[in-house]
## 1
Amino acid sequence: MINRHIGYYLGSKLAAAVLSLATMALFVRLGGTETFGAYLVMFAWTYVVYGLSVQWMRFAFFARYREETSSDFVVTYLKSLAAAYAILIAGLAIAAAAGLLPTNFAIGLGVLFIGIVTYDALYEIARTRLRAGAVAIGVLLRAALMLLFGVIALTTLKTPLALALAVGLGHLGAACFLLVAASDKTNGTYSKEAMGDLWNYGRPLIPAYALDAVGMQLDRLLLAHYRTHVELGTYGAAADFIRQVMIVIAEAIAGAYFAIARNDIVAGRQDQASHTLGQAFLAYTALTAFAATFVLRFDRWIFDTLYGSEIGAAVEPIIGVIVINNAALIFRAYFFGQIIFLTPSSSLLFYSNLASVTTSTLLGFLLVPTYGMYGAATAMMMGHIAGSTVYIWVWRGHFVMKLPYMHAATIVFAALAAYVLSGPLANAYPTSLWAAIVNLSIFGILALLVARAFDILSFNSLTAAALARFKST
């Protein structure tokens, strides 16, 4: 089962990553950094509202879903979200009518919220039910629709609101497919028992995700407040590229491993669950180590190609701290933050997020006014490290921390070796195509050797299956 899940999740996420990178590049080039920056403010506030309201319900559903009450759980979840949408729309309409929010901002936030939350909910339903094929199609469909709608919006209207509407509708389009895939579970009724189960587990998640929502968007909000939309757009273009690459694969790892680990724990198979977590840990280590060193080696080539030399030159001095920030984010949110739902209590998430947000907020207010993008990235990086430290300390000695650390260290060493070995050619021939090809080969060979040695994302099984299919044709 796990090999099939990895094939679906990783394949769809990698394809979606390519589309997402093209999407971001086109958004910045078609709209400009100012329009893109203004859209990022709207997007950031959407996630703040999401975290303050219903995000907890998504992860409570993942933790508490049981097949014997599945239809009532699904219907209860979706009807609760529908009620939340009605409250949000009414609140935004009142705020816009009273002059508390610009009308365009309220409309954009509302469409983004409904689109993102609906997609996330139906994605979670499919993931929890181990419907890997449906998840894969939904992921690809969302990426394709965001690209299509976004390009149409920016070539016709070229406004932040148009881009926000395009992104929101792209999420809704993919959500419609996932809703059809979940149609066999929509014949239940709203259940007070199901809602009570969600509430009892998810109650500690509410303040945790409220904190996380502010903390995750703090760098953008502070840059928008203290600096300009142009600087925010420049920072967002670089930071979102790295985050997108890492998160897309991180979500594939989470989708492939954690639902299966959860099923093992529910069935009392702790040893199997521990092995699955160890494999996920190695996959996250390989992702962050090779992605970080790759971006550090090829940063100017990447950003000059995607966004133009002006943005490439502007972000070059801060690329190191942005890379480390996103690597720390991956472990805090996608490794430790997923393990929390395999444990009986979710309250630790609050303390981790509190440490993260407190650290990033204090450093953000101190650093962003003076140091701008560098200060924002540094504040976020230290916040993610602080949040991860809470998990490591509390879970010391717990079976979830019995991980293959020596194997992970070997993977990091291999990634650093790729960076070092590619240095001489990169420094001597910075604009040479053949030098870039050689250096790309160095990274590719070492990454494949690591995947082979540690069976990262079931590399050996998937490769053998692909070869067998190729030989049979």
## 2
Amino acid sequence: MINTRAAGDARHARTGKDGAFYNADGVLLATVESFTSNVSFNNSSYAVLGNAQELETANTFKVTLTMSQIVIEDDAFIQELIEAMKTQTMPYWNFQGTLNGRNGSEQRMVYSECVPSGQVDLQNITTGDVVKRAWNFAVNQPPDLQSLLSID
């Protein structure tokens, strides 16, 4: 066998039950069904004399955060959003995403200065389905990776 590490150690693979999403105060946002954070990079292309290959250099990046929330009650987020639309002063939120390792290690990432971006569900109701609210945020500070998973 060439690969004796088996992709790290399959016993340490994590699933959604090992993750959690918190507000800035460390309070578990228990009704959040899922969350995703992504970064997209926008490079600038250029070509130089004597070289037929087009090159790129780093230019900008954007971090986005998406969460799906099960609607159980009207919580602080929707209340703050509705008030913000009335006053035309948008809120900024801070979040923490965690993933717990099998051995007690934890990956924790902090997302700061999150503002609503794109579409946010005010009401999304379908017969026979759990009522959920989709949120999309732009993250205006680079994420802060506070702790890492390990398999040791």
## 3
Amino acid sequence: MTGPLPPNVAQAVCAALHARTLAERVRLRLSGGWTAKQAWERLAESPRLAVLGHAGGDERHAIDLVYKALVAAATAGTVRRQQVKYTMRLNTKGPRDMLVDVFRA
């Protein structure tokens, strides 16, 4: 199936961005937010299965749908979106800088 997620599933994706513990609040403050993959991992079982079914069983496509739902929510003003830069050190190639979209409720 293609197209946007159903509204109730998109709301569940946005709800997954809320910090549940003090440690998560600290992590959000330091990192700037959750990535689409992290939001996918934080989804409850029922919405996760709905997204996976909408994606035809392909987890990578399901994460892309979560990302698109988060971008749409950011455009609507429901969540905040920003890009963060971090450096990853690869043993064979040295440091690599990356830009990643993160989202906060």
